[in-house]
Specification:
31% of the residues lie in helices and 23% in strands. It is built from 14 helices and 20 strands. The protein has a 9-stranded mixed β-sheet, sandwiched between helices. The chain has a 5-stranded parallel β-sheet with strand order 14-13-12-15-16, sandwiched between helices. Strands 17, 18, 19 and 20 form a 4-stranded mixed β-sheet that branches. Bound molecules: xanthosine-5'-monophosphate. Xanthosine-5'-monophosphate binds next to loops.
Length: 509
């Protein structure tokens, strides 16, 4: 069995980052809600627990609280920020209420050499982001480190493996964050570094076999890494009892279908191609409203899918749901936790009565890539940037026509190729072109042109929830712009999108 870390989510924006850090140490972890009761927690058999931070204050009218019995079951616990304040308050510390947030870097001054600080140098930079502050520890607690400004940065229970940190080890700005978490997980909680996504094939296929039994399954492959990896896994488990489809909407990237088929075939997935581009273009004619486009595409996709599914008598639907889609977002102010609906399949009709097979629901995207690689999926397919279900339709402002899609495909193909040539593609979370079909004046040779604009977008992100624009070097931007304008008929301007999410979104529609 794997070692297991449980992360109690008190609603912090960066809870997923804690999980990512733990997984990167090759230790399995799960995020659960802060109010999960002790019996449920015991059933999950964790090796230790981490409490996340929170936008709440322990002085709120109804602060989010954990089951206090957790402190008495001899499990190592690490509280981060709000989590630390809660623990310290329970042990009768003095936590000062504050309206002003301390935000930013602070050097860590060690009071003691404890094994949770092993290898961490005095004066290393930590990152603070808190309102309330622990000013005096209760008598059962001892301070292990303070911040350069004198506040308590790290404490420990005198007789138990319970720790609290005011700084955020999970953010990259804390220079020693990874070492600190590693110390807690390995030196204190004695976890084993035994979570290897690339070695999951046997377990996963056994689980799938058990779930599907003698049933039949279908999957829709989009060309993205998630649907490909999950389909290959299921094909490995149940062979020809899996029927796969690719709905060619005409809104995919250039040569998409041609590119993905050979690799999938080699791995036992032989998808039927449903060529439906004519139908999609017909239904999208004259439609300019982004939401309407999405609805039409979603509905058409499901119609086609349902038709095929009925022919196969399937009982199961394979879905590439990932862990970030499954984690319940803890809403501190709202009455209940909300599970995010998955973009791609939000609209499957209930009448289809298909049970879901979701072999990737405990994995992060980069873990899926590792698994995909060990399944033998080609690097090009595995390392691809995410691509939205509605495809290029939401990257063409205004009406979607075949001609516009072609222009966008050509520009996008050049952009992607150049990013790969310049070794930038793998450093970027997502990069694509957007067609702005508004004509402006240009000059080419001796001739005046009156053509459209392409916007190029590139963002860095970990899960698509937040994103910052990628700093592509000027000379590469120059190359991209020149090649697109010179080679793509219908384009005479290229602009670069420098907006972050939030307040912007990654896609334009
Ligand atoms: P936004 O534009 O909301 O996008 O910042 C966040 C991430 O989600 C992708 N995206 C979609 N993926 N179906 C999908 O499968 C969709 O309808 C959809 N809309 C946005 C987007 O490409 C980005 O990675």
């Amino acid at each position: 069995m794997y070692s297991k870390v449980l992360i109690l989510d008190f609603g912090s924006q960066v809870t997923k980052l804690i999980a990512r850090n733990v997984r990167e140490l090759n230790v399995y972890c799960e995020i659960i809600s802060y109010d999960t009761n002790i019996d449920k927690i015991k059933q999950l058999k964790p090796d230790c627990i981490i409490f996340s931070g929170s936008p709440a204050s322990i002085y709120d009218k109804k602060p989010p609280l954990f089951d206090k019995k957790l402190l008495d079951i001899n499990l190592p616990i690490l509280g981060i920020c709000y989590g630390a304040q809660l623990i310290s308050k329970i042990y009768k510390s003095n936590v000062k209420k504050s309206k002003i947030r301390e935000f930013g870097p602070a050097k860590l001054i060690k009071n003691k050499n404890h094994k949770i600080l092993l290898g961490i140098k005095n004066n290393s930079v930590s990152w603070m982001s808190h309102g309330d502050t622990i000013v005096k520890l209760g008598k059962n607690l001892e301070g292990l480190a303070k911040s350069e400004f004198g506040s308590i940065a790290l404490f420990k229970h005198k007789n138990k493996n319970i720790f609290g940190t005011q700084f955020h080890p999970e953010v990259v700005h804390t220079s020693f964050g990874k070492d600190f978490l590693s110390n807690f997980i390995f030196n204190i909680a004695k976890c084993k570094s035994n979570w290897r996504p690339g070695k999951l094939i046997k377990n996963k296929t056994a689980e799938i076999k058990k779930q599907i039994g003698n049933g039949r399954a279908i999957s829709a492959i989009s060309g993205g890494v998630d649907s490909s990896v999950s389909s290959v896994l299921v094909a490995k488990a149940i062979g020809s009892k899996l029927k796969s489809f690719i709905v060619d909407t005409g809104l995919m990237r250039k040569n998409e279908v041609k590119l993905i088929i050979p690799n999938l075939k080699k791995l036992g997935v032989n998808p039927k191609i449903i060529n439906a581009s004519k139908l999609f273009f017909k239904r999208l004619k004259g439609i300019t409203n982004p939401e309407k486009k999405r609805k039409i595409i979603g509905k058409t996709f499901i119609e086609l899918f349902e038709k095929e599914a009925n022919k196969t008598n399937a009982d199961f639907l394979v879905q590439g749901t990932l862990y970030p889609d499954v984690i319940e977002s803890v809403s501190i102010s709202g009455p209940s936790a909300v599970i995010k609906s998955h973009h791609n399949v939000g609209g499957l009709p209930k009448r289809m009565k298909l049970s879901l097979v979701e072999p990737l629901r405990d994995l992060f995207k980069d873990e899926v890539r590792v698994l995909g690689k060990s399944l033998g999926i080609e690097k090009d397919l595995i390392g691809r940037h995410p691509f939205p279900g509605p495809g290029l339709a939401i990257r063409i402002l205004g009406e979607v026509t075949e001609e516009r899609v072609k222009i966008l495909q050509e520009a996008d193909d050049i952009y992607t190729r150049l990013l790969k040539e310049k070794k930038l593609y793998d450093q970027i979370w997502q990069a694509f072109c957007v067609l702005i079909p508004i004509k402006t004046v240009g000059v080419m040779g001796d001739e005046r042109t009156y053509e459209n604009t392409i916007a190029i977008r590139a963002v860095n992100s970990t899960d698509g929830m937040t994103a910052s624009w990628s700093r592509i070097p000027y000379d590469v931007l120059d190359l991209i712009s020149s090649e697109i304008i010179n080679s793509v008929k219908g384009i005479n301007k290229v602009v670069f999108d420098i907006s972050n999410k939030p307040p912007s979104t990654i896609e334009w529609e």
